[in-house]
Amino acid sequence: MNKKELIANIKQKKSFLCIGLDTDLGKIPKHLLSTDDPVFEFNKAIIDATSEYCIAYKPNLAFYESLGVNGWSTFEKTVEYIRSNHPEQFVIADAKRGDIGNTSNMYARTFFNNNCVDALTIAPYMGEDSVTPFLKFEGKWVVLLALTSNKGSLDFQLTEDSKGERLFEKVLRVSQQWGSDENMMYVVGATRGSLFEDVRRIVPDHFLLVPGVGAQGGSLEEVCRYGMNSTCGLIVNSSRAIIYADSSEAFASKAKEAAHEVQQEMELFLSKKGII
User: Fold this and answer.
1) Residue 76 to residue 143: CA distance in whole angstroms
2) Is 96 an active-site residue?
3) 3-state secondary structure 47-99
Protein backbone atom coordinates (compact mmCIF):
# COMPACT_ATOMS: atom_id res chain seq x y z
CA MET A 1 0.00 0.00 0.00
CA ASN A 2 1.46 3.34 -1.01
CA LYS A 3 1.15 6.67 0.77
CA LYS A 4 -1.62 7.98 -1.48
CA GLU A 5 -3.73 4.86 -0.83
CA LEU A 6 -3.13 5.08 2.91
CA ILE A 7 -4.25 8.71 3.01
CA ALA A 8 -7.32 7.90 0.91
CA ASN A 9 -8.29 5.14 3.33
CA ILE A 10 -7.93 7.50 6.30
CA LYS A 11 -10.28 9.97 4.62
CA GLN A 12 -12.77 7.30 3.62
CA LYS A 13 -12.97 5.68 7.06
CA LYS A 14 -12.57 8.98 8.90
CA SER A 15 -10.08 7.19 11.09
CA PHE A 16 -6.35 6.77 11.63
CA LEU A 17 -6.75 3.99 14.17
CA CYS A 18 -4.42 1.01 14.22
CA ILE A 19 -5.46 -1.91 16.42
CA GLY A 20 -2.61 -3.78 18.02
CA LEU A 21 -3.07 -7.53 18.02
CA ASP A 22 -1.03 -8.12 21.19
CA THR A 23 -2.95 -11.30 21.81
CA ASP A 24 -2.06 -12.95 25.11
CA LEU A 25 -3.29 -16.52 25.57
CA GLY A 26 -3.73 -15.79 29.26
CA LYS A 27 -6.08 -12.86 28.66
CA ILE A 28 -8.44 -14.02 25.94
CA PRO A 29 -11.96 -15.20 26.88
CA LYS A 30 -11.92 -18.64 28.44
CA HIS A 31 -14.50 -20.13 26.10
CA LEU A 32 -12.01 -19.83 23.22
CA LEU A 33 -9.43 -22.03 24.92
CA SER A 34 -11.21 -25.19 23.77
CA THR A 35 -10.74 -24.31 20.08
CA ASP A 36 -7.85 -25.62 17.96
CA ASP A 37 -6.20 -22.21 17.73
CA PRO A 38 -7.58 -19.88 20.43
CA VAL A 39 -5.40 -16.90 19.51
CA PHE A 40 -6.43 -17.06 15.86
CA GLU A 41 -10.12 -17.40 16.76
CA PHE A 42 -9.78 -14.36 19.02
CA ASN A 43 -7.96 -12.36 16.32
CA LYS A 44 -10.55 -13.25 13.68
CA ALA A 45 -13.40 -12.09 15.87
CA ILE A 46 -11.63 -8.85 16.80
CA ILE A 47 -10.74 -8.11 13.16
CA ASP A 48 -14.24 -8.76 11.83
CA ALA A 49 -15.80 -6.65 14.58
CA THR A 50 -13.50 -3.63 14.29
CA SER A 51 -12.39 -3.41 10.66
CA GLU A 52 -14.87 -0.68 9.69
CA TYR A 53 -13.39 1.65 12.31
CA CYS A 54 -9.66 1.22 11.76
CA ILE A 55 -7.19 1.51 8.91
CA ALA A 56 -4.47 -0.83 10.20
CA TYR A 57 -3.67 -3.85 12.34
CA LYS A 58 -0.37 -4.39 14.12
CA PRO A 59 0.41 -7.91 15.31
CA ASN A 60 3.16 -7.79 17.94
CA LEU A 61 5.50 -10.66 17.08
CA ALA A 62 6.55 -11.27 20.67
CA PHE A 63 3.07 -12.56 21.50
CA TYR A 64 3.26 -15.08 18.66
CA GLU A 65 6.90 -16.12 18.83
CA SER A 66 6.48 -16.87 22.54
CA LEU A 67 4.15 -19.72 21.53
CA GLY A 68 6.76 -21.40 19.33
CA VAL A 69 5.96 -22.93 15.96
CA ASN A 70 2.22 -22.83 16.62
CA GLY A 71 2.40 -19.13 17.42
CA TRP A 72 4.24 -18.35 14.22
CA SER A 73 1.58 -20.28 12.31
CA THR A 74 -1.10 -18.21 14.06
CA PHE A 75 0.65 -15.01 13.02
CA GLU A 76 0.77 -16.17 9.39
CA LYS A 77 -2.90 -17.19 9.46
CA THR A 78 -3.84 -13.84 10.99
CA VAL A 79 -2.08 -11.86 8.26
CA GLU A 80 -3.61 -14.06 5.56
CA TYR A 81 -7.07 -13.62 7.09
CA ILE A 82 -6.73 -9.84 6.98
CA ARG A 83 -5.44 -9.97 3.41
CA SER A 84 -8.29 -12.21 2.23
CA ASN A 85 -11.19 -10.66 4.12
CA HIS A 86 -10.20 -7.04 4.78
CA PRO A 87 -7.74 -6.16 1.99
CA GLU A 88 -8.04 -2.42 2.61
CA GLN A 89 -6.22 -2.77 5.92
CA PHE A 90 -2.59 -1.73 6.35
CA VAL A 91 -0.71 -4.51 8.15
CA ILE A 92 2.27 -3.70 10.35
CA ALA A 93 4.43 -6.47 11.77
CA ASP A 94 5.73 -5.13 15.07
CA ALA A 95 8.94 -7.14 15.17
CA LYS A 96 11.59 -4.47 15.85
CA ARG A 97 14.20 -6.17 13.69
CA GLY A 98 17.60 -4.71 12.79
CA ASP A 99 20.94 -6.42 12.30
CA ILE A 100 23.89 -6.46 9.90
CA GLY A 101 22.91 -6.09 6.25
CA ASN A 102 22.86 -9.75 5.25
CA THR A 103 20.71 -10.70 8.24
CA SER A 104 18.41 -7.73 7.68
CA ASN A 105 17.93 -8.86 4.09
CA MET A 106 16.71 -12.25 5.36
CA TYR A 107 14.34 -10.58 7.83
CA ALA A 108 12.99 -8.43 5.00
CA ARG A 109 12.32 -11.49 2.87
CA THR A 110 10.56 -13.17 5.78
CA PHE A 111 8.08 -10.39 6.35
CA PHE A 112 7.70 -8.77 2.94
CA ASN A 113 7.88 -11.79 0.63
CA ASN A 114 6.66 -14.68 2.77
CA ASN A 115 4.17 -12.95 5.08
CA CYS A 116 3.22 -10.05 2.82
CA VAL A 117 2.87 -7.40 5.51
CA ASP A 118 2.92 -3.75 4.48
CA ALA A 119 5.32 -2.51 7.10
CA LEU A 120 7.84 -3.66 9.67
CA THR A 121 9.16 -1.92 12.78
CA ILE A 122 12.95 -1.57 12.70
CA ALA A 123 15.53 -0.59 15.33
CA PRO A 124 18.00 1.97 13.90
CA TYR A 125 20.87 1.50 16.35
CA MET A 126 23.14 -0.39 13.92
CA GLY A 127 22.83 2.29 11.27
CA GLU A 128 22.26 2.60 7.54
CA ASP A 129 23.38 -0.81 6.31
CA SER A 130 21.05 -2.52 8.80
CA VAL A 131 18.02 -0.55 7.57
CA THR A 132 18.42 -0.14 3.80
CA PRO A 133 17.81 -3.85 2.98
CA PHE A 134 14.23 -3.34 4.14
CA LEU A 135 13.83 -0.30 1.90
CA LYS A 136 14.52 -2.22 -1.31
CA PHE A 137 11.06 -3.79 -1.39
CA GLU A 138 8.70 -1.76 -3.54
CA GLY A 139 5.45 -0.81 -1.87
CA LYS A 140 6.71 -1.75 1.60
CA TRP A 141 7.43 0.46 4.58
CA VAL A 142 10.08 0.69 7.27
CA VAL A 143 8.77 1.98 10.61
CA LEU A 144 11.87 3.23 12.38
CA LEU A 145 12.00 3.57 16.16
CA ALA A 146 12.61 7.22 16.97
CA LEU A 147 11.13 8.39 20.27
CA THR A 148 9.48 5.81 22.50
CA SER A 149 7.36 6.15 25.64
CA ASN A 150 9.09 3.71 27.96
CA LYS A 151 11.04 4.92 30.99
CA GLY A 152 14.30 3.51 29.61
CA SER A 153 14.10 5.78 26.57
CA LEU A 154 15.68 8.44 28.77
CA ASP A 155 18.89 6.41 28.83
CA PHE A 156 19.70 7.19 25.19
CA GLN A 157 17.01 8.86 23.11
CA LEU A 158 17.04 12.26 24.83
CA THR A 159 20.79 12.50 25.38
CA GLU A 160 22.46 15.44 23.61
CA ASP A 161 25.71 15.64 21.68
CA SER A 162 28.15 18.54 21.90
CA LYS A 163 25.98 20.58 19.53
CA GLY A 164 22.82 20.05 21.54
CA GLU A 165 21.23 17.59 19.13
CA ARG A 166 19.32 14.85 20.88
CA LEU A 167 19.78 11.27 19.72
CA PHE A 168 16.19 10.87 18.51
CA GLU A 169 16.62 14.03 16.43
CA LYS A 170 19.77 12.61 14.86
CA VAL A 171 17.91 9.40 14.03
CA LEU A 172 15.20 11.44 12.29
CA ARG A 173 17.65 13.66 10.44
CA VAL A 174 20.18 11.06 9.27
CA SER A 175 17.65 8.39 8.32
CA GLN A 176 16.05 10.69 5.77
CA GLN A 177 19.12 10.04 3.63
CA TRP A 178 18.13 6.34 3.47
CA GLY A 179 14.46 6.54 2.55
CA SER A 180 11.62 8.98 1.98
CA ASP A 181 8.14 9.75 3.26
CA GLU A 182 6.91 7.23 0.67
CA ASN A 183 8.57 4.23 2.34
CA MET A 184 9.61 5.25 5.85
CA MET A 185 7.62 6.05 8.98
CA TYR A 186 8.70 6.72 12.55
CA VAL A 187 7.57 5.40 15.91
CA VAL A 188 6.83 8.23 18.34
CA GLY A 189 5.20 7.35 21.65
CA ALA A 190 1.87 8.97 22.50
CA THR A 191 3.07 10.15 25.92
CA ARG A 192 5.63 12.48 24.34
CA GLY A 193 3.19 15.40 24.09
CA SER A 194 4.79 18.62 22.85
CA LEU A 195 7.92 16.75 21.73
CA PHE A 196 5.86 15.91 18.64
CA GLU A 197 6.52 19.52 17.60
CA ASP A 198 10.26 18.82 17.63
CA VAL A 199 9.69 15.66 15.60
CA ARG A 200 7.58 17.50 13.05
CA ARG A 201 10.21 20.19 12.55
CA ILE A 202 12.52 17.49 11.19
CA VAL A 203 10.02 15.17 9.47
CA PRO A 204 6.98 17.29 8.57
CA ASP A 205 5.63 14.95 5.89
CA HIS A 206 6.35 11.46 7.21
CA PHE A 207 3.75 9.21 8.80
CA LEU A 208 4.21 8.64 12.52
CA LEU A 209 3.16 5.37 14.13
CA VAL A 210 2.01 6.35 17.61
CA PRO A 211 1.64 3.66 20.29
CA GLY A 212 0.52 4.38 23.81
CA VAL A 213 -3.02 5.74 23.44
CA GLY A 214 -5.48 3.96 25.69
CA ALA A 215 -4.20 1.66 28.41
CA GLN A 216 -0.77 3.34 28.44
CA GLY A 217 -2.31 6.74 29.12
CA GLY A 218 -1.34 8.70 26.00
CA SER A 219 -3.57 11.63 25.04
CA LEU A 220 -5.07 11.49 21.55
CA GLU A 221 -5.81 15.21 21.78
CA GLU A 222 -2.14 16.03 22.42
CA VAL A 223 -0.96 13.68 19.70
CA CYS A 224 -3.23 15.39 17.18
CA ARG A 225 -2.47 18.92 18.37
CA TYR A 226 1.28 18.53 18.05
CA GLY A 227 1.70 15.67 15.56
CA MET A 228 -1.01 15.88 12.90
CA ASN A 229 -0.02 17.37 9.54
CA SER A 230 -2.11 18.52 6.57
CA THR A 231 -2.81 14.95 5.38
CA CYS A 232 -3.11 13.51 8.91
CA GLY A 233 0.32 11.84 8.98
CA LEU A 234 -0.62 9.72 11.99
CA ILE A 235 -1.35 6.07 12.58
CA VAL A 236 -2.37 5.84 16.21
CA ASN A 237 -2.26 2.41 17.80
CA SER A 238 -4.45 1.12 20.58
CA SER A 239 -4.17 -2.46 21.77
CA ARG A 240 -5.37 -3.49 25.22
CA ALA A 241 -8.06 -0.81 25.55
CA ILE A 242 -9.82 -2.28 22.51
CA ILE A 243 -9.04 -5.97 22.25
CA TYR A 244 -9.50 -6.58 25.99
CA ALA A 245 -12.49 -4.28 26.44
CA ASP A 246 -14.42 -7.33 27.64
CA SER A 247 -13.58 -10.93 28.57
CA SER A 248 -17.02 -12.50 28.17
CA GLU A 249 -18.49 -14.17 25.11
CA ALA A 250 -19.50 -10.66 24.00
CA PHE A 251 -15.83 -9.61 23.74
CA ALA A 252 -15.98 -8.85 20.01
CA SER A 253 -19.00 -6.56 20.22
CA LYS A 254 -17.41 -4.69 23.13
CA ALA A 255 -14.19 -4.31 21.12
CA LYS A 256 -16.29 -2.93 18.28
CA GLU A 257 -17.82 -0.35 20.61
CA ALA A 258 -14.40 0.65 21.92
CA ALA A 259 -12.98 1.01 18.40
CA HIS A 260 -16.01 3.02 17.28
CA GLU A 261 -15.58 5.38 20.20
CA VAL A 262 -11.95 6.07 19.24
CA GLN A 263 -12.88 6.45 15.56
CA GLN A 264 -15.52 9.05 16.40
CA GLU A 265 -12.97 11.07 18.35
CA MET A 266 -10.52 10.80 15.46
CA GLU A 267 -13.19 11.97 13.02
CA LEU A 268 -13.52 15.20 15.00
CA PHE A 269 -9.80 15.90 14.84
CA LEU A 270 -9.71 15.16 11.10
CA SER A 271 -12.64 17.49 10.55
CA LYS A 272 -11.10 20.29 12.62
CA LYS A 273 -7.93 20.01 10.55
CA GLY A 274 -9.93 20.19 7.30
CA ILE A 275 -8.75 16.78 6.13
CA ILE A 276 -12.28 15.41 5.73
Assistant:
1) 20
2) yes
3) HHHHHHHCCEEEEEHHHHHCCHHHHHHHHHHHHHHHHHHCCCCEEEEEEEECC
11, 96, 254, 273: the active-site residue: 96
Annotate the chain with three-state secondary structure. CCHHHHHHHHHHHCCCEEEEECCCCCCCCHHHHHCCCHHHHHHHHHHHHHHHHCCEEEEEHHHHHCCHHHHHHHHHHHHHHHHHHCCCCEEEEEEEECCCHHHHHHHHHHHHHHCCCCEEEECCCCCHHHHHHHHHCCCCEEEEEEECCCHHHHHCCCCECCCCCEHHHHHHHHHCCCCCCCCEEEEECHHHCCHHHHHHHHCCCCCEEECCECCCCECHHHHHHHHCECCECEEEEECHHHHCCCCCCCHHHHHHHHHHHHHHHHHHHHHHCCCC
216's CB contacts (< 8 A; 6+ apart) are: 149, 190, 191
Spacing of C-alpha 146 from chain mean position: 13
**pLDDT tens for residues 140-154?**
999 999 999 888 888
Q: Which of 148, 121, 142 is nearest to 216 (CA)?
A: 148
pTM, rounded to two decimals: 0.96
φ and ψ of 238, to 5 deg: -135, 130
End-to-end CA distance of the chain: 21
Which residues have a Cβ under 8 Å from the Cβ of 190 and sit 6 or more positions away? Answer: 149, 210, 211, 212, 213, 216, 218, 219, 220, 222, 223, 236
Tens digits of per-residue pLDDT, 40-56?
Answer: 999 999 999 999 999 99
CA-CA distance, 236 to 228, in Å (whole number)? 11
